[in-house]
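Box 3.1 A note on notation
Throughout this textbook, protein chains are presented in two layers. The first layer is the amino acid sequence; the second is a token string describing backbone geometry. Keep the layers aligned when reading.
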Amino acid sequence: MKLETKISLILIIIFLTIGAIFFITGFSALNLLNNLLGINGLVTYAIFPLLFIGMLILIGLLIERQIRKPLFFFIRWIDQLSLGVFKMPDTIKNFPLDKMRFSLFLELKSKLDGLTYQLNTAEKERKELEETRKNWTSGVTHDLKTPLSYIKGYAAMLRSEHKWNEEEIKEFAKIIEEKSLYMEQLIDDLSVIYEFDKMQIPLDLRTINLVTFVKNVLEDLRQYPMANDYPIHLNVKNEGDILLSFDQTLLKRALENFIMNAIYHNPRETTITVSIETIKGSTLIEIKDNGIGMDDKTIQQLFNQYYRGTTTDKSHLGSGLGMSIAKQFIEKQGGQIIVESEPNRGTKIKILFPL
């Protein structure tokens, strides 16, 4: 039996019960009134049925408009939500919502309004994430296929009957090596994401001089051919050593990802400055560039592992995983990341570690 039918039966029983009570008490009251006032009983008995019928009609209308229709309205609303239709149903025929009187129903409507809004928001976010995930999967697949096609092509050329000179062979080998390294890096990133999901990343915290560590990281980064066009500076604002407990492997990878992201997404000659200082019980590492900056939407998506960015013309260099991995590595060590950026004003990535 449908819920609406059950409710209708219950309301009919309530209606009949009220009618019976009214009939018994009303008839008894009229008899008593006849005796006290000496009124002709026939007149009373003629008036009573009219009063009784009128009262039944009034009670029926009250139950219909103020109880049954609102209940059916809320049942329809909940049914719609359960079916994935996250909106308020059309108003019941001949029953505008502003005629709802009982505070219980008004409170229920308010609760359902809030729930509908939250479900709508969640559904919108789910669809956006699903679309981003599809685009990311398509992009990563393309990223793997493209270097693979290079490798296959140059391997086929080397295997051909053509007599390549030594310089050409070295050039082909260099391209094959570069494409292989890129594929290896991409597979490593995917592996890291998987290990993070499984909580399998070990943490090896050691207290080390942060200044020396960052100097070494920057020195390694300057060896990358692409970094030659981007001046990278170190600015230490405190004198002496800055001792900090951190995992060298994770922090090195995070700093590399942040700095390489600045290189990928900015034009040549963009200056990158890494600053270190201690402030208010924390150690701050700031990676600042004077590049093209980001708008608010890009900042919000920056650490989404499925976001691949939109401002670079070097799309083959980024899987979209680097920033997500960097953020997870920092947070794994108890750090916090703050991003400040404006279009055409550059970007600051602030990494805070508690002392």
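The two ends are 66 Å apart (CA to CA). The mean pLDDT is 84.
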